[in-house]
Design a protein that fits this description.
The protein has 180 residues and is an alpha+beta fold. Helices cover 22% and strands 8% of the residues. It has helices spanning 22-26, 31-40, 54-60, 135-151; strands at residues 2-4, 7-9, 11-12, 17-18, 170-171, 178-179. It has a two-stranded antiparallel ribbon with strand order 1-2. A two-stranded antiparallel ribbon has the order 3-4. A two-stranded antiparallel sheet has the order 5-6. β1 (2-4) and β2 (7-9) form a beta hairpin. The longest helix is centred in the last third of the chain and has 17 residues, at 135-151. It is extended and about 100 Å long.
Length: 180
């Protein structure tokens, strides 16, 4: 009787059995059997099944293993041709088919895949932002409205509606030269 993990196991060395049944099923002694064998002073390797020993392995593979011919030299079997089973559509919604492609292969040969490492602004050509979020653009737009109004001989855009009636004025805000 061997005590392990607070439980008692009955080990019979003569019948090669243990209460945990690992030795009975696998042929290899479990930890309870190893403890009982070492307590008696016997050699543990004597109680391992012959299947796991080197001399059994050498006896099984002692004869010469004959190589077989390639597919071209196989004999053609006589009889009915064996076909795969008939495919029947299963009930329910079909599962989504995922395309399995090489990750380096492009989807379309005429269109290259976009591989962008960093953003570059189209306005100021600096790295780290794009044209839409460019801060230089906002300062440039404010200056453009004043300079074009001076070039056309008009006063400030905001003060151009004073005078004799309504005039159409170009607005230099975010809508870019659209008449408002």
């Amino acid at each position: 009787m061997v005590t392990s993990d607070g439980k008692k196991y009955i080990v019979n060395i003569v019948k090669k059995s243990c209460a945990c049944n690992k030795w009975d099923l696998t042929g290899k002694p479990c930890k309870h059997v190893v403890r009982a064998i070492s307590y008696k002073g016997y050699n543990t390797e004597d109680y391992v099944d012959d299947y796991f020993k080197k001399k059994t392995y050498m006896r099984v593979y002692s004869h010469l293993i004959q190589p077989c011919n390639g597919l071209d030299f196989w004999l053609i079997a006589v009889g009915d041709l064996i076909l795969p089973p008939i495919h029947r559509k299963q009930p329910g919604r079909p599962k989504r088919m995922h395309k399995r492609r090489d990750p380096n292969e492009h989807q379309n040969s005429h269109k290259l895949k976009r591989n962008q490492n960093s953003l570059r602004c189209g306005q100021c050509h600096q790295v780290g932002h794009n044209k839409k979020s460019c801060k230089k653009k906002q300062t440039m737009l404010a200056g453009v409205g004043k300079t074009e109004a001076k070039a056309n001989g008009r006063k400030n855009v905001a003060s151009s509606d004073k005078g004799k009636g309504k005039k159409r004025v170009s607005c230099y805000c975010t809508c870019f030269l659209v008449t408002c």
